[in-house]
TrEMBL record:
<dbReference type="Pfam" id="PF20723">
    <property type="entry name" value="Pellino_RING"/>
</dbReference>
<protein>
    <recommendedName>
        <fullName>Protein pellino</fullName>
    </recommendedName>
</protein>
<dbReference type="InterPro" id="IPR048334">
    <property type="entry name" value="Pellino_FHA"/>
</dbReference>
<dbReference type="Pfam" id="PF04710">
    <property type="entry name" value="Pellino_FHA"/>
</dbReference>
<feature type="domain" description="Pellino RING">
    <location>
        <begin position="259"/>
        <end position="399"/>
    </location>
</feature>
<keyword id="KW-0597">Phosphoprotein</keyword>
<feature type="domain" description="Pellino FHA">
    <location>
        <begin position="7"/>
        <end position="254"/>
    </location>
</feature>
<dbReference type="InterPro" id="IPR006800">
    <property type="entry name" value="Pellino_fam"/>
</dbReference>
<dbReference type="InterPro" id="IPR048335">
    <property type="entry name" value="Pellino_RING"/>
</dbReference>
<comment type="similarity">
    <text>Belongs to the pellino family.</text>
</comment>
Amino acid sequence: MIILFCRYNGFLPPGDRGRKRSKFVLYKRQVANGVKRSKHYVVKTPHCSQAILDATQHSISYTLSRNHAVIVEYANDEDTDMFQIGRSSESPIDFIVMDTVPGDKSAENKVMQQSTISRFACRILCDRNNPKIARIYAAGFDTSRNIFLGEKANKWQENGREIDGLTTNGVLIMHPRGSFCGGDAKCRYWLETSVGGGVFTTRESRSAQQKGQRVDEENNILQDGTLIDLCGATLLWRSAEGLAKSPSKRDLEREIDEINAGRPQCPVGLNTLVIPRKITPNENQQQPYVYLNCGHVQGLHDWGQDKDSGDRKCPICLELGPVVKVCMGLEPAFYVDTGLPSFAFNPCGHMATEKTVKYWANIAIPHGTNGFHAVCPFCASPLSGSPGYVRLIFQDNVD
């Protein structure tokens, strides 16, 4: 099983090492480290309770008032492995996530506002006996093995006994309808998972005090293609079975080679174009560009340039519009099918297969406290126009 950042085209700009990387593979641990709910009780001073002070005891503290809290203790579970995700670089976090910066930029090159990603955002418990079962829960245990939900946090008691709650900005999930790999999956609706693993409709805004309605027909078991949103970063969950059906990086490189073998031409410069595997900052006469309003692929030239807007008039169809470099989307796990990359996202120019581009263009990714917009999965650039992509038309090549 694997989790990927939606934004990084196969690698993180500063490096792809340790716990900070663009993808994180979950393996069965040598020794189980999962936990399961054990017992709960009421205390008056939660920060002084034995469970909180004991660094070997996993526990969740739900503060109901200044002198009233419920402590839920967790016991070791030999049947599950636990993996934790969050912004913190402390040792309990297995997969460190960063705030997503749209486009081919890194957070270091842009002034960032205060992060909305929780330091200990969520935890995933994988069944050691059935690897197809991996459940996601809001919030992760800190270095003292505790989770604290303060007095202002959204929390409630169910059936008069069990207590549950939501984190400040929540952990949202979206399960696909149908098989993600195959090109026939459809996007569904976003749901919110609780600290205890319940599934609810989303709140009116990200941190609203009123929780959504419980959705009994849904669960917190991750499926191949499930999206996980942490309010600042969106992750994609891929199963081992699904990845086996997906194209490999070598498959994608062969598709690039096939396009380049057709020797696509620029109708103005009359030079051969070459699809690069990665965008480079340097200008290259062989670098293809796509006219986003019509889809014609050409080289870089000054013909038809509008000096005021920067748009260019296509010399083939005379359509005026923006132009952008064409670059391959190289993260195979974002693809829903295999085949020739014949479409590109608008406005970033990342190429992918038709079904892949159309699938992602129809998914509204959470943005801010209550906004949503479709983005390119390879760079997280918000899509422009309708439908947010363009069919690529090469000259002297199969189109």
